[in-house]
Structures are given as structure tokens and as C-alpha cells.
Amino acid sequence: xxxxxxxxxxxxxxxxxxxxxxxxxxxxxxxxxxxxxxxxxxxxxxxxxxxxxxxxxxxxxxxxxxxxxxxxxxxxxxxxxxxxxxxxxxxxxxxxxxxxxxxxxxxxxxxxxxxxxxxxxxxxxxxxxxxxxxx
Length: 135
Fold this sequence. Notes:
The protein is an all-alpha fold. It has helices at 12-24, 34-52, 65-81, 94-106, 123-134.
């Protein structure tokens, strides 16, 4: 599930509530499943963000990569230590918070459970840059 303005942890109550929001906004059609309703809500939120000119990533907001990477570990720890983190439906790991920050910086989708698969998260964008330069 795509990450946007709210976390996408696999929690049935939250998913049901997001589907209800899609219903109330008139985004869903009769017979739509919960996942389809959530995808429509996410697409609607993305369109609102585009209409308002909200950057799609931290990088697009003008934050330099070197500055961001120099502070991402501290940001992750601060997010973990924040008093609001304990109110989340699922207590995140620092590594998950870091991955969310990295994905948000580079404009990538975050999906719960993919943190372990993204071991080389910082090198991937640099490799993309090299590939673009050589093309």
C-alpha cells in the first residue's frame, strides 16, 4: 500500500476508517473493496497536494542530500523518542522511522515490512544518478 499523508501499517481498524473517509468524500463506488477505497483516497490526497503545490519529496522542497543524510540518524532517533510515537497503533523501530524518512526524502513509496529488503537505501539513489549521467 502506498504511503502518503498517513501511515499504511496493516491495521484493520485504521484501514476501515480510511475506507469510510473515501465513502464520505464520494470517492468510492458501490462494491469497491476496502483496498480500492484506500487507493482512491490516496490518489485524491496526491491530487490535492499537487494542486496546492506541495513538494512530492523532501528533496523537491530544496533540502540538500548531504545535509539530510548528515542528520537522518538523529531525526530517526528524535522521532522514536517523541512522546507522540507511543500513541501510534504500532510502535515503530528506529530503522523503520529512518526508512520512512529516506523514502520521503527521495519520493519513494514506503511499505511496512520492506525495511529489511532496503539494506542499501542510501546507495540506490546515487547509483541512479550515475546511470543517468552515463546515459
